[in-house]
Design a protein that fits this description.
Elements (H helix, E strand, L loop, with lengths): L2 E8 L3 H11 L4 H7 L2 H12 L7 E10 L3 E6 L5 E6 L2 E9 L3
Antiparallel strand pairs: 1-5, 2-5, 3-4
């Protein structure tokens, strides 16, 4: 049984977030907290609410899915404009208890 948490519409590109997520996948919770705090604290609170042993938790699954891109306009010459895409992503973390 896993304890999940997600952060929707994070203002980071999915490619950069995916590198971080693959780095923390499989780590014990204490080590992973040093790298990615916001989503892991939420997952840890979910596990604590369901009375899980926080000492045995590890990151079972972590992924970054692509979210919608915010579109912003940049003024250019002669009254025209360029569109700048500002990517977002959805972060999902699942914690599980390690077997002794």
């Amino acid at each position: 049984m896993g304890y999940r948490a997600s952060h929707q519409y994070a203002r980071i590109s999915p490619r950069k977030a995916g590198l971080v997520m693959s780095m923390i996948r499989g780590m014990p919770l204490e080590e992973a907290l040093r790298v990615l705090a916001r989503v892991l604290r939420s997952a840890m609170a979910n596990a604590d609410e369901q009375e899980a042993d926080l000492e045995l938790l590890y990151v079972a699954d972590a992924r970054a899915d692509q979210g919608p891109a915010l579109r912003r306009m940049t003024p250019r010459a002669r009254g025209s404009a360029d569109v700048r895409r500002r990517p977002t992503c959805h972060l999902m973390v699942e914690l599980e208890e390690a077997e002794d």
